[in-house]
Amino acid sequence: MQEGSGKQARFIENENFLSYGLVPATTPTSRPMPSIPAKPPRLTGEALCAGYDSRRVLDGVDLTVAEGKLTILLGPNGSGKSTLLKTLARTLTPSAGRVYLDGQDIHRRNTREVAQRLGILPQGPSAPEGLTVRQLVGMGRFPHRRLWRQDAERDARAIREAMAHADVTEFAERSVDALSGGQRQRCWIAMVLAQETDLILLDEPTTFLDLKVQVDLLELLSRLAHEHGRTLLVVLHDLNLAAAYADTLVMMRDGAILRQGAPRDVFTAANLKAVFDLDANVIRDPHSRRLVCVPTPGVHAAATSSPAIEGVAP
Ligand SMILES: Nc1ncnc2c1ncn2[C@@H]1O[C@H](COP(=O)(O)OP(=O)(O)OP(=O)(O)O)[C@@H](O)[C@H]1O
């Protein structure tokens, strides 16, 4: 994060001052340089086991979400993606393993503190009846409000910007339940953005969105990561959009992570078969240079014998 690294730089300067400030100018090179304290990853799951009642879904999952990157979680229906997201966001308590937020066990942090750092949009959220879009988006500001201190100007700016990013400003005064599924989904995204957290977890945010709006949303998420240093973990079902926008793809099956890495390394026909049991070719679009998966039910064996489309050129 820009701000975080700035703070760290100042800290190091201070440490240099403390170490060397009173030492004559000729001697510093003989002193060892002070070690830079390693910054813990923003969000890590270690050996996570989680599920519902007696049913175990996650089975020893390890995941470190890369800071300032867009990580996309893929996997077949029921593979445990939402369960992993909920466990990482503390909505679900793991039966074993730990989640660390900025190096501290997330279950030892208070709710407000977590909500100021991590925003999650679950699958299929529902809003109280009659709530306007502006009110819904304003709910994203709750973690920043205190009884004795409110920053109305900052709240209003965050709400305005979030609505603009998600392109819902024109609906601001309308009731959420009078919107289409796609419009409503964008309002929820705006609510998470209004929370202004560095970490954003989104569970299938493109549901109900038309393709153009899906692309716009992924462009926005990519900008949030690459230009604003936010850390994003997003569940998607669209393989091609995932391969086009992810810095890291995490592929789950049966409650475990089977593959993870940059799309050029893991978005392969063999991995799509192993994770999704999907017969497909992975080709590179000659114009965008992006990887594209083309399902080939029934023709896979013949198609993959063609070297022109079989391999994934880096
Ligand atoms: N609240 C719940 N109570 C009981 N079982 C649940 C609950 N939520 C999910 N499950 C079960 O846990 C397993 C994993 O579900 P999960 O929602 O994590 O999968 P997913 O990969 O997100 O699936 P999808 O792509 O369909 O959204 C599934 O077998 C599901 O039936």
From TrEMBL:
Transmembrane segments: none annotated. It comes from the Bacteria. It is a peripheral membrane protein. Its main location: membrane. One of its GO terms (molecular function) is ATP binding. GO terms for biological process: iron ion transport. Residues 43-279 form the ABC transporter domain. It is found in: Cell membrane. GO terms for cellular component: plasma membrane. InterPro entries: AAA+_ATPase, ABC_transporter-like_ATP-bd, P-loop_NTPase, Siderophore_ABC-ATPase. Keywords: ATP-binding, Cell membrane, Ion transport, Iron, Iron transport, Membrane, Nucleotide-binding, Transport. It holds the Pfam family ABC_tran. SUPFAM superfamilies: P-loop containing nucleoside triphosphate hydrolases (SSF52540). Belongs to the ABC transporter superfamily. This is ABC-type transport system ATP-binding protein. It comes from Halomonas elongata (strain ATCC 33173 / DSM 2581 / NBRC 15536 / NCIMB 2198 / 1H9).
